[in-house]
TrEMBL record, chain A:
Catalyzes the prenylation of para-hydroxybenzoate (PHB) with an all-trans polyprenyl group. Mediates the second step in the final reaction sequence of ubiquinone-8 (UQ-8) biosynthesis, which is the condensation of the polyisoprenoid side chain with PHB, generating the first membrane-bound Q intermediate 3-octaprenyl-4-hydroxybenzoate. Keywords: Cell inner membrane, Cell membrane, Magnesium, Membrane, Transferase, Transmembrane, Transmembrane helix, Ubiquinone biosynthesis. The keyword Transmembrane helix applies. It catalyses: all-trans-octaprenyl diphosphate + 4-hydroxybenzoate = 4-hydroxy-3-(all-trans-octaprenyl)benzoate + diphosphate. GO terms for cellular component: plasma membrane. InterPro entries: HB_polyprenyltransferase-like, Prenyltransferase, UbiA_prenyltransferase, UbiA_prenylTrfase_CS, UbiA_sf. This is 4-hydroxybenzoate octaprenyltransferase. It comes from Azospirillum doebereinerae. It comes from the Bacteria. The gene is ubiA. It is found in: Cell inner membrane; Membrane. It holds the Pfam family UbiA. The keyword Transmembrane applies. Pathway: Cofactor biosynthesis; ubiquinone biosynthesis. The chain crosses the membrane at residues 65-89, 110-130, 136-154, 163-180, 186-205, 226-245.
From TrEMBL, chain B:
This is Methyltransferase. It comes from Azospirillum doebereinerae. GO terms for molecular function: protein-lysine N-methyltransferase activity. One of its GO terms (biological process) is methylation. The keyword Transferase applies. Keywords: Methyltransferase, Transferase. The keyword Lipoprotein does not apply. InterPro entries: Ribosomal_L11_MeTrfase_PrmA, SAM-dependent_MTases_sf. It holds the Pfam family PrmA.
Length: 307, 218
């Protein structure tokens, strides 16, 4: 034998050269767009949906599109900020690992100082978005920073970092309501707690990959060792999610149509777990990403409940 | 103790451990990347130092060392160079296999201290030098051993081009590679394969199929 099979390029790096950033973005911007993970939007969707659900739930009738757009921008920049913080903190470790060696900071495309400047830029954009909201939502937004910035540290410390991730990623369930109504109420609180169960479910699926590949919202894959009982746990988390969302909508006075459409979202969750193959890397990632469709179904259910 | 000697530094920041594939050998190894790296920067009062590769037993190096112990005939009585030695595990194994003399080279300052300590821990003598040998001729060297040198494109291209010219002079050149991205696609001859247990954190999987290739002149 005189040659070796080349590994699939996607095996050794988590930077996509053939993604839209590599093809369409001007070269000087590429490392920054990569730093913010704009080519991997699932993390943004998972951050955004609790905001949108909550805005829709709190709206007198139809949700204000401007408000929805503000949350979309906020989710993109805050998720980007979180990823940037993560890459700054993990830069040394990333440099030793083949998969992460070509990320913008360890590969030297962006200095730590530049990354910090980019972080400040994203946070300022986030601030501009936040200042469009009433005082209660502004207060909540400021409070969320404590979670956003401690998450990369907590994932190394806490025994069950997924729970902490859930606290962070579902904060929008409180903010959306506060942005519309100017206060907090039980439907939003129930939705927030419910969102944590949802996160525990999807992140357990995510943790079954041995690569911390796509969304980079999870934790070290060894963190969650539910082992063979994972499916049972996820059924449990998803059942809580379904029941909690049902309760939240009813508390907010949504009609019976809400529960009917919500049952489709519940079926989606059941499909995820039933067809999930924990040992199949691609399937783990696909099922994890399919939560985007769950997000749309829940949003549709809330809108239907307003009819 | 603000400015320990490199030897003290390596001793203080590592523990003696046995790499999974090499029960015969003990090495000064670190368990965590970041604290060690920050300690090296603090000690040298310098930022942007290269990663502390010398504190980890990379699968490519382990496999080459294993081959030395399994096939001592490859190096017995010969003059050997361990290129980009890191821990020096390959040099140690080559000495244990009966090489006449072994030189280990690495451009990292701490690597030299690590090689010295690791040689001592295993009761062998290794001459460690801190020079970039790439591009130079290697008179008097019969065998060049290199573990895990193809993980970065610029280094891999530079090193393999040079090692091919070394191979062209009749020197045996062996590369240990766990499937890195920039291993040459041709001009290689398979010598042996080992399954090396690895850490999920550094290698994304619990084992790496690692091949020892003989690099050909072309």
């Amino acid at each position: 034998m005189t040659s070796t099979a080349k590994p699939d390029p996607t095996d050794f790096t988590d930077i996509r050269r053939d993604g839209w950033i590599g093809r369409w973005a001007p070269a000087p911007f590429r490392p920054y767009l990569t730093l913010a993970r704009l080519d991997r939007p699932i993390g943004t969707w998972l951050l955004l949906f609790p905001c949108w659900w909550s805005v829709a739930l709190a709206a007198p009738r139809w949700p204000d599109l401007w408000m929805m757009a503000l949350f979309a921008i906020g989710a993109v920049v805050m998720r980007g900020a979180g990823c940037t913080v993560n890459d700054i903190l993990d830069r040394k470790f990333d440099a030793m690992v083949e998969r992460t060696r070509s990320r913008p900071i360890p590969s030297g495309q962006v200095s730590v100082r530049q990354a910090l400047a980019f972080l400040v830029f994203q946070l300022l954009l986030g601030l501009v978005v936040l200042l469009q909201f009433p005082p209660a939502a502004i207060g909540l937004g400021v409070l969320s920073l404590a979670l956003v910035f401690t998450y990369p540290l907590m994932k190394r410390i806490t025994w069950w970092p997924q729970a902490f991730l859930g606290l962070t990623f579902n904060w929008g369930a409180l903010m959306g309501w506060a942005a519309v109504r100017g206060d907090l109420d039980w439907p939003a609180v129930v939705m927030y707690v419910t969102g944590i169960a949802w996160t525990l479910g999807y992140d357990t699926i995510y943790a079954h990959q041995d690569k911390e590949d796509d969304a980079r919202i999870g934790v070290k894959s060894t963190a969650l060792r539910l082992g063979d009982t994972s499916k049972i746990w996820i059924y449990g988390f998803y059942t809580l999610t379904y029941a909690g969302l049902g309760l939240s909508g009813r508390l907010a006075g949504l009609s019976g149509l809400y529960l009917m459409v919500l049952s489709l979202a519940g079926l989606h969750l059941a499909w995820q777990v039933a067809t999930w193959r924990p040992d199949d890397q691609n399937d783990c990632l696909d099922k994890f990403k399919s939560n985007r469709w769950f997000g749309w179904l829940v949003l549709a259910a809330i809108l239907a409940g307003k009819l | 103790m603000n400015n320990p000697s490199p030897l003290d530094f390596v001793r203080d920041n590592t523990t003696l451990a046995t790499p999974p594939l090499l029960p015969e050998i003990q090495l000064h190894l670190a368990t965590e990347v970041t604290p060690l790296w920050e300690a090296t920067e603090e000690t040298l009062a310098e930022k942007n130092l290269p990663p502390p590769y010398w504190a980890f037993a990379w699968p490519g190096g382990q496999a080459v060392a294993r081959l030395m112990l399994d096939r001592p005939d490859l190096v017995a009585g010969k003059s050997v160079l361990d290129f980009a030695a890191g821990t020096g595990v390959v040099a140690v194994a080559a000495m244990m296999a009966g090489a006449a003399r072994v030189q280990a080279c690495d451009i990292d300052r701490f690597s030299l201290a690590a090689i010295a300590l690791n040689a001592k821990a295993n009761g062998v003598e290794v001459k460690a030098v801190s020079v970039d040998l790439v591009g130079r001729e290697l008179p008097g060297i019969d065998v060049v051993l290199a573990g895990d040198v193809c993980y970065e494109r610029p280094m891999a291209e530079r090193v393999t081009a040079w090692l091919r010219t070394v191979a062209a002079t009749g020197t045996l050149v062996l590369l240990g590679d766990p499937g890195r991205a920039y291993v040459p696609a041709h001009g290689l001859e398979k010598v042996a394969t080992y399954t090396v247990p690895t850490s999920l954190e550094l290698e994304d999987r619990t084992t790496r199929e690692t091949t020892i290739w003989r690099l050909l002149a072309e």
